[in-house]
Design a protein that fits this description.
378 residues; alpha/beta; 5-stranded mixed beta sheet; globular
Length: 378
């Protein structure tokens, strides 16, 4: 049975060159920008010389709505922001999602600015009793923070720390109040305000939101969820049995970060930090799945050293892509090996382009490797 392993790592600098993108980002002028009426990723243009890439999350839960592909698509831009609802409740017998400290850590280390947001309205679900749908974020607050970020010169870590300490409590309370109004309007069966506010109270110290309290409360919850997931079988993914892991990361300034990883393999004396994506119907997984795996590995591929139980270990970082393929190909590879693999598998032009872009990405980021392989037998 898989277990949850605990690693300590050091990152001195984060540098990554993302190459696997197809969609051209649409640009929206700041005067007309409404987060509810634009694409999930894009660029907010303030003037000729100032712009911010944005990625809108539909939920604060990373593993449910997979927002990382959206962040990946803007990662090459000089300034990028993740707009994240602080709470997401969809009603009766659905999940109640709140932002957690690991998301805060992940964005800090990735140098992605966060704007906390809240849903201010929703409609009654047309067919599911007690549910709500078509939730709308408060766009005015998002625009205020985007305008503030326009001239902000410090790192995402500084912004996120300031933003959470200054705005977390008010955004959280606005979200709770708005959901109360949604219940009155729609009859949706949502988590009670008292439950939300009791959770918020755990983050408060001496009358103010406290990041250390937030960490102390939400980290154990995240690790407990990771531990539960080690008991879960994902037959459709056809993954070999692995261990899950969480990482305590420090940077050169002494900052502390906490990340989780789904798969750890051991090959000889080397730890493999691996993300796996599979498709049962196609040759290669969807582009969004590939990008999700790539983004999760950015930070791990920037680690300078790693310890397990206080012992230094060798490690590699790998994205494994499996599908209806014939044989294995490890990237980076030379052009002859890639063309031979493409012909052997009769890949469509789209998949051919994926492989070529992935090969360029691996070449640009030497600590990353990618494995293409056939599905394991179920």
């Amino acid at each position: 049975m898989p277990i949850l392993l605990k690693f300590d790592g050091i990152i001195r600098n984060v540098s990554y060159d993302s190459r696997t993108r197809f969609t051209k980002l649409k640009t929206y002028h700041s005067n007309d920008f409404n987060i509810n009426e634009v694409g999930t990723t894009g660029i907010v243009q303030f003037d000729e010389d100032t712009s911010i890439g944005y990625a809108r999350w539909t939920s604060p839960k990373r593993t449910r709505t997979y927002p990382f592909p959206r962040v990946y698509n803007i990662y090459h831009l000089p300034k990028k922001v993740a707009i994240i609802p602080i709470i997401k409740d969809e009603g009766y017998k659905t999940n109640n999602d709140r932002i957690n400290y690991i998301t805060y850590s992940w964005m800090n280390l990735s140098n992605v600015y966060i704007i906390l947001a809240w849903y201010e309205s929703a409609l009654k679900h047309p067919s599911k009793w007690g549910r709500i749908t078509k939730q709308i974020l408060n766009a005015g607050f998002v625009n205020e923070r985007l305008t503030e970020l326009r001239t902000y010169q410090q790192t995402a870590l500084h912004w996120n720390t300031m933003h959470f300490e200054r705005d977390f409590e008010s955004v959280f309370r606005n979200a709770v109040t708005s959901y109360e109004k949604v219940v009155q309007k729609t009859g949706g069966v949502l988590v009670s305000s008292a439950t939300h506010l009791a959770e918020l109270e755990k983050y408060i110290d001496d009358g103010l939101f406290n990041l250390e309290q937030f960490k102390a409360v939400s980290l154990p919850q995240s690790f407990a969820a990771a531990q539960r997931e080690t008991q879960t079988s994902h037959k459709s993914e056809y993954l070999q049995e692995t261990s899950k892991a969480y990482f305590f990361i420090t940077n050169w300034l002494g900052g502390e970060y906490h990340l989780t990883c789904d798969e750890i393999l051991f090959e000889k004396n080397t730890v493999i930090i691996q993300e796996s994506k599979n498709t049962t119907n196609d040759k290669l997984p969807k582009l969004s799945d590939i990008q999700d795996g790539l983004f999760k590995l950015i930070l791990f591929s920037n680690m300078d050293s790693l310890k397990l139980d206080k012992q230094s270990v060798k490690f590699r970082v790998r994205l494994k892509l499996t599908g209806n393929l014939d044989s294995q190909l490890m990237l980076p590879a030379d052009s002859n090996a890639i063309e031979t693999y493409i012909k052997r598998n009769s890949l469509k032009p789209r998949d051919q382009q994926y492989i070529r872009m992935l090969n360029e990405e691996v070449k640009a980021n030497p600590k990353l490797e990618i494995e293409l392989n056939q599905n394991a037998k179920s």
